Amino acid sequence: MAKCRICGGAVDEFFDFGRQPVSDSFVTPETAGSEFYFRLAAGVCTNCTMVQLLEEVPREQMFHEDYPYRSSGSSVMHRHFEAFAHRLLETDLAGDDPFIVEIGSNDGTMLKTVQKAGVRHLGVDPSAQVGDFARADGVRVRTAFFEDATAREIAASDGPADVIFSANTTSHIPYMDSIFRGVDALLASDGVLVLEDRYLGSIMEQNAFDQIYDEHFYLFSVSSVRAMAQTFGFELVDVEPLTVHGGSMRYTIARPGKRSPSTTMTELLARERAQGLASPQTYQRFAAGVRRSCGELMDLLKDLRAQGRTVVGYGATAKSATVINYCGIGPELVPFICDSTEAKQGRLTPGSHIPVRPPAAFSEPYPDYALLFAWNHVEEIMAKEQGFRDAGGKWILYVPEVHVV
Ligand code: SAH
Ligand code: TYD
Ligand code: ZN
């Protein structure tokens, strides 16, 4: 059995998606075929309950100059981060000359608000282009992987951080031992490490199997993050359920004994036990759900093609790589995918090589059906594309199950 990357316990594999390409490697017609492949399989630690991948992709294959994801692509996410930045400015960043470090600052969507308030900050992100977007907004960014050594250098040059924030990034980092050593070197004695990420409980409940892909090395729960914090000498003190990305959780971690644990945390730990997040049956049920969803989705797409109906994809998400390549969706079923990210437009999806086109292509003319790969942004996208529905178009979703609306 594989060993847990957090605690060294035995990891029980529950799903093998087979050979999969790096999810954000949108290739050009010239570079198609050069994608890096690995075995995408997920398991759960029988000791600390951390859900994790069994094979790690070298980080430079995922996060580099060309990394295309932009946090600012969703106005909901923009407002979400803006609101949280304001909350931090009124609480943990309200003291004398506060300092915040963000791990995975991307295009600066969150730090922009901090910068405008004139508060000392530093974003750390290895992907060079996203950093340039942030810098254009006046955000201070260091193009680097956050880890032990980076954190020590920041501590030496900028002093201790009152807040270390990281959204949808620490789950991408297998080497959590180095991260926590870095946090230990950088965090002020009464500072907080705030993490937010897609929540395992929601993923299991909604059978959101596409949340499993290379970048999501871990799927966090309250139970596993609590164990992780403890393993590396910290303490989980508070949690806050969030609606973004189809169900997320915000975790507040402090040095041991510095803050008293909240009742919400205790309640959620009990709920996770009741939901069976530590039980093998839950993962077997999930595995059966993945096979069922894929089978139903492929049947539906093939039926529509047989009836001569047109289908276009919407949202060239990283998570769509899992659905597309595992289920076997190619350009013959979905001829193109619309996406608002300039860096993805004109490119081909990893593995399946489905062209990505700007949203303007959606109405030229509207297809009969749209397969919503960005289902986590369903409200925002449906509101934006009301014209599609007015023209008689129908949306296909596969979370929590395959359905047409
Ligand atoms: N925080 C943003 C971006 C998430 S995408 C949001 O929630 O929308 C994940 C980001 O993490 C990418 O920009 C990637 O380049 C960055 N990343 C990956 N490994 C990292 C590491 N070790 N240190 C800092 N950033 C990292
Ligand atoms: P997202 O689901 O946030 O993340 P991931 O890539 O990690 O799965 O990606 C959303 C994608 O959908 C992104 O490429 C931008 C695109 N998008 C649109 O094209 N239009 C929209 O209105 C929104 C909100 C997103
Ligand atoms: Zn473990």
CATH topology of the largest domain: Rossmann fold
CATH architecture field of the largest domain = 3-Layer(aba) Sandwich
CATH class annotation of the largest domain:
Alpha Beta
Count of helices? 13
Secondary structure category: alpha/beta
How many β-strands, per DSSP?
Answer: 18
Low-confidence stretches: none
The CATH homology group name of the largest domain: Vaccinia Virus protein VP39
Shape: globular
| Beta-strand percentage range | 15-25%
Rg from alpha-carbon coordinates: 21 Å
Please explain how this structure is put together:
The protein is built from 13 helices and 18 strands. The protein has 405 residues and is of the alpha/beta class. It has 3 domains: 2-53; 71-259, Rossmann fold, CATH 3.40.50; 281-404, Rossmann fold. The protein has a 7-stranded mixed sheet with strand order 7-6-5-8-9-12-11. A 6-stranded mixed sheet has the order 15-14-13-16-17-18. The chain has a 5-stranded antiparallel sheet with strand order 1-2-3-4-10. Strand 11 and strand 12 form a beta hairpin. The longest helix has 27 residues, at 280-306. The termini are far apart. The model has no long low-confidence stretch (mean pLDDT 98). Residues 69, 73-74, 315-319, 339-341, 344, 359, 374, 376-377, 380-381, 384 line the site of thymidine-5'-diphosphate.
Summarize the structure.
This protein has 405 residues and is of the alpha/beta class. The protein folds into 3 domains: 2-53; 71-259, Rossmann fold (3-Layer(aba) Sandwich), CATH 3.40.50; 281-404, Rossmann fold, CATH 3.40.50.720.
